[in-house]
């Protein structure tokens, strides 16, 4: 099942720096971000791809089903990271107007890695 991790922040009088690469357990091969989102995004799981989702501005909700349990996560802090396993069928919704959702992936995009049907 997906899980939330808190990324480490380093704060001083110049601002705050949040470190990602040492906190996730995969090599990052793909990076993208979603913004100006309305409605529902996602609605899939993967065969191989692991993902780390970070809402770097605003907030959104992530709904996850791993065929054993269902859970809703609120991403509303810049240092809150949701780790999704390939088996986690998920979708995102309830995006704030200013939401920017950063997605880090363990695999490059491959259409045949996507499974659109839920459990």
Structural features:
single chain; 5-stranded antiparallel sheet; 119 residues; Jelly Rolls; 53% strand; mainly beta
Structural class by secondary-structure content: mainly beta
What is the assigned CATH homologous superfamily?
A: Jelly Rolls
Main sheet makeup: 5 strands, antiparallel
As a whole number of angstroms, the C-alpha radius of gyration is 14 Å
Corresponding CATH architecture = Sandwich
Number of strands: 12
Give the spatial strand order of the biggest sheet. 1-9-6-11-4
Uncertain stretches of 5 or more adjacent residues: none
What's the order of the H and E elements? EEEEEEEEEEEE
CATH topology call: Jelly Rolls
Name the helicity range. under 10%
- The best one-word shape is globular
Rounded mean pLDDT score: 97
Instruction: Estimate nothing, just give the exact number of structural domains.
Output: 1
CATH class: Mainly Beta
Distance between the termini: 14 Å
Tell me the strand percentage band. Answer: over 45%
Task: Please tally the helical runs, counting DSSP H or I stretches of 4 or more residues.
Answer: 0
